[in-house]
Write a structure and sequence with these properties.
Order of helices and strands: EEHHEEHHEEHEH
Number of strands: 7
CATH topology of the largest domain: Alpha-Beta Plaits
Structural class: alpha+beta
Distance between the termini: 38 Å
Helix content: 25-40%
Strand content: 25-35%
Number of domains: 2
Largest sheet: 4 strands, antiparallel
Length: 161
């Protein structure tokens, strides 16, 4: 079990980070033979990224709610993410092509992604009595101090309150 960090903490981010949300929604629940290959396609990608940290994935976590599966990923940069997505020797591009050929237009399963480019001085992250989580797990978690006491200070919106 992950160690709970007592008290209030925030993420220390020194370089820009790309936050990537990717997932799928099962639209036709009983068409398992059609959506299952989409579901399991992420496994080889995550194993590849774990084996080769220089590809740029800092941290990821899977969430499941109803018919929707969401994978939140933190990348060292947008360039790392894009390079992985477009490289025919990495598992993403072949999986994306298979999806488009086999089920892309069928409506059996939907896929989505969102990318956010996060600047270090524009982040508000707070973790109270939590283990390393989210952006903090991807970068570094540090105790809140006078300079990071409020959300306004954490996002750099004010020099002082």
């Amino acid at each position: 079990m992950a160690k709970v960090l007592a008290g209030r903490h925030t993420a220390r981010v020194e370089d820009p980070v790309a936050v990537f949300l990717i997932g799928m929604r099962i639209n036709q629940l009983f068409a398992v033979h059609r959506w299952w290959p989409v579901f399991i396609a992420m496994g080889p990608m995550l194993r590849e990224l774990a084996r080769f940290p220089d590809k740029g994935l800092l941290h990821s976590r899977v969430y499941w709610s109803g018919r929707t599966v969401l994978l939140v990923q933190y990348w060292r940069s947008f360039e790392h993410l894009e390079k992985f997505a477009r490289n025919p020797n990495d598992p993403h591009l072949p999986a994306w092509r298979r999806y488009n050929q086999r089920v892309g237009k069928s409506g059996v399963v939907g896929v989505f992604h969102e990318t956010y480019l996060v600047q270090p001085d524009r982040i508000d992250a707070i973790y109270a009595n939590m283990p390393a989580f989210g952006l903090g797990a991807a970068t570094q978690i540090v105790p809140v101090n006078a300079g990071s006491e409020t959300a306004r200070r954490r996002v750099g919106a004010a020099a002082a309150d």
